[in-house]
Structure formats: C-alpha cells, structure tokens
Design goal:
By secondary structure, the chain is an all-beta fold. The chain has no helices and five strands. It is globular and about 35 Å long. InterPro entries: zinc_ribbon_bacterial (IPR025990).
Length: 69
C-alpha cells in the first residue's frame, strides 16, 4: 500500500447506516474487497473503480455481503 495514494472517503454502512471514513488504496487499480463496519462489524463489499488514465478514484460502491456488486 502506498501512503500517498491512500485517500479517506466518507461513507455509510449498508447495515447500520452509521457514517465513517473509509481509507481507499487507489494504487491497486480497480478492485473488489471486503471491510468490516467499525460499528456493527458487518462485512461490507467494496467495489473500487480507478481511472486507468488518471489513477484517480472514479467510483466507490458499498454493498451488503448478499448483494451482487
């Protein structure tokens, strides 16, 4: 992980709706991963879309573990 490419984004948990800041590593390019909610500990699916041209975050999609992203 490259610290200079670690951005924090405000999001809401798809389970408990609590807001929190989510660090996103764009150095990996577009990818899918899982993070646990810091409040309710539910598993959150993350789809990170990074522009291949600029290397910047294009989209960040959060979903429940039973949703298809």
């Amino acid at each position: 992980m490259h610290e200079e490419q670690l951005d924090t984004h405000p999001v809401h948990c798809p389970y408990c709706s609590m807001p929190f800041d989510l660090p996103v590593d764009v150095s990996q390019g577009s990818h899918q991963t899982w993070e646990d909610c810091p409040y309710c500990c539910a598993p959150i699916q993350l789809r990170v879309e990074v522009s291949p041209m600029t290397g910047e975050l294009d989209a960040l999609v959060l979903g429940r573990d039973d949703e298809v992203l």
